[in-house]
Amino acid sequence: KAERQALVDEILEWKKKRNALILAHNYELPEIQDIADVLGDSLALARAAMRADADVIVLCGVHFMAETAAILNPDKTVLLPDPNAGCSLADSITADALRAWKAEHPGAVVVSYVNTSAEVKAESDYCCTSSNAVQVVRSIPEDREILFLPDMFLGSYVKRVTGRENLHIWMGECHVHAGIRPHDIEETLSAHPDAELLIHPECGCSTSNMYLLAEGQLPADRTHVLSTSGMLQRARESDKRAFIVATEVGILYQMERQNPDKTFIPANRAAVCPFMKMITLEKVRDALARLETVISVPADVAARARVAIERMVAIG
Ligand code: 13P
Ligand code: SF4
């Protein structure tokens, strides 16, 4: 414990010296969440990065989040404490593959989830996150074809909610969320029949749950499909005492902290993102001390990607 405090003190000193701001995603390790100036979902972190007036932004999250910060605030030094913190979902589509897909659908509007590389964003018309995907799709005229990528579960969810038949979905997935299956929900719900259901739309269970919901097989008044920050807000505001949480388990730390009198049950305890857990206190200290690893995006790619990202930040 004393060792951990000494590390935290070092980080705070370096933070002052570097005039740095620490942004952390809701899936980060508890000790990283504790030192964050801003803790949030992808949209909140993008907005915080855009507004930041510190000289250095330490992004405790994954590579695409640091790229997004660098694109939105190009004058700042954006540091990712472990450059290997990637994302299986972002890796499921390349810019070349997207160009080929676009060639098959000339004139289609490209909506990319924020979990994509800067190069893929540069080929996109809009970016979206789990908290505004539905609103972004609704903002596009009905008669335009849409290419939605890369997450097939989020895509199916958005298609179902908006009823857009001309929305084509890329078959990518996040291996962590895809591992949360419908039977995980069935089992936890039968063990906790009064619990409220909080589901991330990237989950393998979310699409089938939308069908079950529509068929009246899930409690509609207690099932919520939300981004990670949306889940935290719902947990605070709901008068229910127990919640089944279908997303990466790192979020439970904050839920329990904010609601000590409520119970949170992970739908699948094995839903752990190895990339998010790569960021440790030691690596944050070293990142600030050595000013490493700087994440930057070539100016031409950044300029094209920025248009799509700014549309995302503006909607929802
Ligand atoms: P949100 O925090 O935006 O809901 O995204 C979840 C996620 O998997 C980020 O990588
Ligand atoms: Fe990527 Fe999934 Fe990890 Fe989020 S949880 S960073 S989508 S691999």
TrEMBL record:
<keyword id="KW-0808">Transferase</keyword>
<dbReference type="GO" id="GO:0008987">
    <property type="term" value="F:quinolinate synthetase A activity"/>
</dbReference>
<keyword id="KW-0662">Pyridine nucleotide biosynthesis</keyword>
<protein>
    <recommendedName>
        <fullName>Quinolinate synthase</fullName>
        <ecNumber>2.5.1.72</ecNumber>
    </recommendedName>
</protein>
<comment type="pathway">
    <text>Cofactor biosynthesis; NAD(+) biosynthesis; quinolinate from iminoaspartate: step 1/1.</text>
</comment>
<feature type="binding site">
    <location>
        <position position="174"/>
    </location>
    <ligand>
        <name>[4Fe-4S] cluster</name>
    </ligand>
</feature>
<keyword id="KW-0479">Metal-binding</keyword>
<keyword id="KW-0411">Iron-sulfur</keyword>
<keyword id="KW-0963">Cytoplasm</keyword>
<feature type="binding site">
    <location>
        <position position="130"/>
    </location>
    <ligand>
        <name>iminosuccinate</name>
    </ligand>
</feature>
<dbReference type="InterPro" id="IPR036094">
    <property type="entry name" value="NadA_sf"/>
</dbReference>
<keyword id="KW-0408">Iron</keyword>
<feature type="binding site">
    <location>
        <position position="273"/>
    </location>
    <ligand>
        <name>[4Fe-4S] cluster</name>
    </ligand>
</feature>
<comment type="function">
    <text>Catalyzes the condensation of iminoaspartate with dihydroxyacetone phosphate to form quinolinate.</text>
</comment>
<feature type="binding site">
    <location>
        <position position="42"/>
    </location>
    <ligand>
        <name>iminosuccinate</name>
    </ligand>
</feature>
<feature type="binding site">
    <location>
        <position position="228"/>
    </location>
    <ligand>
        <name>iminosuccinate</name>
    </ligand>
</feature>
<feature type="binding site">
    <location>
        <begin position="113"/>
        <end position="115"/>
    </location>
    <ligand>
        <name>iminosuccinate</name>
    </ligand>
</feature>
<comment type="similarity">
    <text>Belongs to the quinolinate synthase family. Type 2 subfamily.</text>
</comment>
<dbReference type="Pfam" id="PF02445">
    <property type="entry name" value="NadA"/>
</dbReference>
<dbReference type="GO" id="GO:0034628">
    <property type="term" value="P:'de novo' NAD+ biosynthetic process from L-aspartate"/>
</dbReference>
<dbReference type="InterPro" id="IPR003473">
    <property type="entry name" value="NadA"/>
</dbReference>
<feature type="binding site">
    <location>
        <position position="25"/>
    </location>
    <ligand>
        <name>iminosuccinate</name>
    </ligand>
</feature>
<dbReference type="GO" id="GO:0005737">
    <property type="term" value="C:cytoplasm"/>
</dbReference>
<feature type="binding site">
    <location>
        <position position="87"/>
    </location>
    <ligand>
        <name>[4Fe-4S] cluster</name>
    </ligand>
</feature>
<dbReference type="InterPro" id="IPR023066">
    <property type="entry name" value="Quinolinate_synth_type2"/>
</dbReference>
<dbReference type="GO" id="GO:0051539">
    <property type="term" value="F:4 iron, 4 sulfur cluster binding"/>
</dbReference>
<keyword id="KW-0004">4Fe-4S</keyword>
<feature type="binding site">
    <location>
        <begin position="200"/>
        <end position="202"/>
    </location>
    <ligand>
        <name>iminosuccinate</name>
    </ligand>
</feature>
<dbReference type="GO" id="GO:0046872">
    <property type="term" value="F:metal ion binding"/>
</dbReference>
